Give the backbone structure.
Amino acid sequence: MATEEMLSERDLLAALDSPDWPVALRAVAVADKLIRGCIVGDPGIEKVVAKLVTLANHSKWEIRRAVANAAANTPHPSFEAVLAKLILDDNSRVRQAAEHAALRRRDSRHASTLGKQHEDRINSILDDIEARFGVRGRDAVKRASEQIANTFARELYHEIIKLLSPLAASADRLRAQLSSTNTPANVLAAEAERIRRRVAQLSAILNAMRAYTAQPVLDYQPEVLREVIEEGVSLALESDPDKSPRPSVEIKGPLNVIVDIARARLVQALTNVLLNAIESYQDAHSLKPIEVSADLQGALVTITVKDSGCGMSGEAQRDALTLFATNKPNGTGFGLPLATKIIESEHGGRLSIESVKGLGTIVRMTIPQHRQVDSA
Ligand SMILES: Nc1ncnc2c1ncn2[C@@H]1O[C@H](COP(=O)(O)OP(=O)(O)O)[C@@H](O)[C@H]1O
Ligand SMILES: [Mg+2]
């Protein structure tokens, strides 16, 4: 007997027209597979699509729902009107399928536009490099960036799997505990809490990664240094979730200096550095204040954050700037890399760290006071 998948196009069209509705329903499932990811305008599928559009008016809700499900898997524009109608269907299962399909179609449209924009941006950077350094320059940059992307993906995989494996183990334990009638409620609650914390950590990593990879439009404006520093300090003090005693922050230096910066980004860099400074007092006995100072030397402005927290060994200092490197239970390891990216790539400056284990850390962020117009 022929399988459904082996129906010829003519048989399929006939089955879609069948007065016997279960036959028509099976035919919709076959048509769904056929049009999945189809190229719009392919004459082979246009007739099938037209039949599916008609079947959206079928008296059986099962058929209308199957049409909505098929619409989720194809970009064919004929289904826009179909879904607009099915979203208002009398049957709730049909409505649900139509809503789901409309969302899927919107998401995949969005993803393909983003993909295109991304590709255009990379090509324009590579074209620029080729104009300056020739084809070999273009190739070298392309190879290097592919390496970086690979490393990033690999590290992200390890970070996520590190959290997912215990999550799966917790879920298995919870299931076993639930099937035994005498597991005390507090044991179940503790397991559920472990799961919740791991999920929270996973979303913290994904959010940090999103912030790190975002490419916001940068609007450089002259700003008063004092205001920028004060904003960073108050954000850091507000967003530190730890309620234990913490150091105060002292601000000093020639703060009336004007600097050309992308303000929100610089505030973000400063906040990240300050949060680390605050967190470095976790196990410290002294609460000596954190000092934030500003200095203007020639055309360079330096913001320095000095803490008297736990400090770092030489190795920890080198690690601190790499993605995912963290020694905190709820850390993500994205704070310093993002601060470095903002200071160095976005402001043409330099972020450096000096630290002594047990004594404290100094982070210096130096940027040009005025933006250089790139004349190359
Ligand atoms: N001021 C500091 N004092 C001590 N250690 C620090 C300081 N700043 C950064 N570190 C170390 O560098 C690591 C990476 O920092 P960061 O990139 O902000 O990620 P996170 O804060 O999420 O761990 C921290 O986990 C910590 O070990
Ligand atoms: Mg941090």
